What does this fold into?
Amino acid sequence: MRQFYTKIERKFKYGPAFFLLNFLLPTRKIPLKELKAIKPKKILLVKIHHKLGDMLLATPVFAPLRRRFPDTQIDFLAGTYNAQAVTHNRSLSSVFVFDRKKPFSSIGTLLRLRRERYDLCIVASASSFSTTNSILARLTGPKVITGYRAPYKGVPENRRITSAIYSYAIELPDPSVSESMYNIGYIAPFDCPVDTVDEVLHFTDSELAFARDWYASIRPATKHHCIGIHAGGTYASRQWPQEYFADLISRLLVRKGVIIIMFYGKGERTIVDSVLQAVNMNCGSGTSAIIHAPQGTFRQLAALQSHLDLFIGNDTGPLHAAASSGCTAIGIYTVTKPARWAPHNRTVTTLEQPTVDQVMATAERLLNQTAGAS
It folds into this structure.
């Protein structure tokens, strides 16, 4: 299916399909002054292809947009996977889902969106431009479409897909800015009041109850520090060495009253087993204070993270979930730059290519602050 989308995108980037789209679905072009003056009754944001962490980096956009347009219907078109990051967000009216693996099954969704007759559609692609997002935006039939200009090198402006689809193409920001600020940039024309770029998740009562009940079943009557660990990740290059995690956990277990909770997703159990095997060699019977987090949805696990005293993990979706839940967290960055990709939440401390000593010292400091605050 990925090859299918790649072929489609190339056709629209460079081939005759570009001109066909421009002919069949022409878009009314407007100047920036007219875009800034728009007073939409209905807004649609489109972002279907990003992963959960990238989607959470876009959540700071919603509250400013809602404050700017308090009475406007603001809907979101997400993908089947990343929709979890925006579902139940209080600044959005509705979240719709497009299934990239079964695009024809989503025709009904597109027809439903066309019937809404949106006044404004914002293609919410940040530094990673998506032709698919742009095409879907056009297929929903809004009066005005905007988003970042396609960054195709060597392609004339009049051959870029954004010149065919967008009513107004927003200039790309300096590539050195953070992904959060990239996201803020596509709502900049509307003068939205932005007071924070914190990522956010809003939980349902059932998700909160799931976390509360689980902790009630595992937390002893005496005060303990619950520390979450996520040693996995989609990309091996972004994973801190497993032996480092094993050493870190072994040191944390020396602290009195510590419970280690291992978080992991599909396909990551072998990583956890490898880490805990090394911990067992270091600590022996001390590993009884290590618990596996229950398997659940991304949102349920994020609700669990909101109860932690500290979360330590790689540059992956669970780190962004921890930040969005309000959890104190340490983000470990091996190849990516935290200034570019890390959550901006004040509860998150990022470390770039750290040693075990550095992570342990940071964890000790944060846990002591937590103890002092309580």
